[in-house]
Amino acid sequence: MAGILRNRGLPGQWVALTNVRDRRYDLGMKRAISGILAGVVWVSWGPAAGADIVHDGRGPFQNVRIIGIVDDELRFRMPDGRTIAKRASELEWITVSAGRGPTAPTLNRAENARRLGKLARAIGHYSSVRTDAELPWMRAFAVMRLASTNDRLGEFVVALGFYLELAGTHPLLARSVVPTHLPAKGSAKAKAALGRIKAELRRSRSKDVKAALNRLQKVIQTGRRAKPDSDGKKKARARGKTRSSAYTQMDLVRAAIADGMIARAEVLFESGWKESKASDRPAWLVMEAELRCASQDYAAGGLAAMRVVALHGDSPEAAAGLFWAGRNFEGLGRPAKAEELYRECLRQENLGEPVRALATARLESLMQTEESR
User: Fold this and answer.
1) Model confidence pLDDT, tens digit, residues 67-89
2) What are the pLDDT digits (tens) for 330-346?
3) What CATH number labels 248-372?
4) Which residue, among 233, 220, 212, 223, has the nearest Cα to 90 in the 3D structure?
5) Cα dihedral: 260, 265, 267, 268 (round 10)
């Protein structure tokens, strides 16, 4: 049984739903799900619980509900039920309600510091959201801001790392935040960056990811800033018109998770698993581990992740399996085991930049927590 908090459309009105399904695996573990929403946390710059604010530079959209990030767009629902999409990288700022999870105030602090030009402080807050946010879209938004904010500070190597991380999960979004403070053409820093990009190109099987990597590779090779990404905008618009056919089933599962629609994600996952090819099973097991983690079914999630490692150890998905095994063991209250899994993940030969960044961040977070005790 997985508990889900869902907003019913009015500020402060949250109800607990449950999703019950037969588990295919039984680890003999019992979970205790706690965390009743007992009140509303008010902050001077925050909206009421259940209401978000999106500012696109021309004015704020108030009392909205942010749904998630699709391609390079932040999508949110208006009070009248309409869904609006705005290019995420072009937004002035957003404010999320206290009901979006413990990291919501941290994201608001980051956006506020960024607006005030306190970029170093903003980076610290975005880093916390990137590692600790419950909602996938909040983590992606934080990575996008980390890439662009570090670029504004001239920190090319750091910005590059976040760009590569974002390209692996949201390639069209990454294309909108290509670093502008580039190293000298042919310099040692440029060569090192091109080496990292080539390694990611070899690992990637996605056309969109490769396109995002090639875009960055070109600007580093030429030493010239990237032109506005009109091609990326066209792709995003085309996908919006043919979402059901252009999106992979995994995209739909992750979108449902991001919107808190765990029951729908379950249905989409089951359908995708049944129709998947044998060669895609490792990726689907990783998807299951991610879904179980989101629904707080950590025992099943840990088992799915370890099946990737045990049965598909040579697959490019093995590193992701180790990462999600760690996340689920954290949920089971076993941080020492999670730390061990993150370290093993970072030792994998087929480790991609997005998973490397996530595993490193979780490992650092656990080590800091251990030191503070």
Assistant:
1) 889 889 999 888 877 888 899 99
2) 999 999 999 999 999 99
3) 1.25.40.10
4) 233
5) 140
